[in-house]
Amino acid sequence: MAGPGAGEPAMEDERSFSDICGGRLALHRRYYSPSCLEFCLSCPRISLRSLTAVTCTVWLAAYGLFTLCENSMILSAAIFITLLGLLGYLHFVKIDHETLLIIDSLGIQMTSSYASGKESTTFIEMGKVKDVIINEAIYMKVIYYLCILLKDPVEPHGISQVVPLFQSAKPRLDCLIEVYRSCQEILAHQKATSTNPFRKPVLSSKGDDS
């Protein structure tokens, strides 16, 4: 699904938050209309220190094997494995941006932009959305995450699936509350529009004086 038209005016703002590990996150919000809002959460960049540590560990291990076996193929294999692992990490693991676009008349679009430039997009029709909530999970400590509840097509009051959001960035609760409130405003606008798709004009007439 394509985003809002380029000709539509949008108000933008950016705020800084932290992830559950203390890393810096940037939340960029674009407000197109009361029925259309986009959030873009920028994840921390690759740590050069961690990348250097992993590379040095692999190459030192390869050099140790080379001194024992005296086979130059080991060093070549270490370089090849390092480059292949780095490319795989950038293309399949490291996410730079996570975007959430919600349009009350269409649905919710989630896009993950990887460090290699690859993008992965998921779209959920608004008719399938039951609610957007903040849930909690326990992984040695309490972790909060934003998720979309999908309606059960068989049971009207049931939930068929829970779709978590911002799983790579893992923002803290204050950031989730900011996104949650805006999503609830869009959902409330959508419910009001679907309940009253148009407002009938009020006609008044003035009677004759006679």
From TrEMBL:
<feature type="transmembrane region" description="Helical">
    <location>
        <begin position="46"/>
        <end position="66"/>
    </location>
</feature>
<dbReference type="InterPro" id="IPR019328">
    <property type="entry name" value="PIGH-H_dom"/>
</dbReference>
<keyword id="KW-0812">Transmembrane</keyword>
<protein>
    <submittedName>
        <fullName>Phosphatidylinositol N-acetylglucosaminyltransferase subunit H isoform X2</fullName>
    </submittedName>
</protein>
<feature type="domain" description="Phosphatidylinositol N-acetylglucosaminyltransferase subunit H conserved">
    <location>
        <begin position="99"/>
        <end position="167"/>
    </location>
</feature>
<keyword id="KW-0472">Membrane</keyword>
<keyword id="KW-0808">Transferase</keyword>
<feature type="transmembrane region" description="Helical">
    <location>
        <begin position="72"/>
        <end position="92"/>
    </location>
</feature>
<dbReference type="Pfam" id="PF10181">
    <property type="entry name" value="PIG-H"/>
</dbReference>
<keyword id="KW-1133">Transmembrane helix</keyword>
<dbReference type="GO" id="GO:0006506">
    <property type="term" value="P:GPI anchor biosynthetic process"/>
</dbReference>
<comment type="pathway">
    <text>Glycolipid biosynthesis; glycosylphosphatidylinositol-anchor biosynthesis.</text>
</comment>
<dbReference type="GO" id="GO:0000506">
    <property type="term" value="C:glycosylphosphatidylinositol-N-acetylglucosaminyltransferase (GPI-GnT) complex"/>
</dbReference>
<comment type="similarity">
    <text>Belongs to the PIGH family.</text>
</comment>
<dbReference type="InterPro" id="IPR044215">
    <property type="entry name" value="PIG-H"/>
</dbReference>
<dbReference type="GO" id="GO:0016757">
    <property type="term" value="F:glycosyltransferase activity"/>
</dbReference>
<keyword id="KW-0328">Glycosyltransferase</keyword>
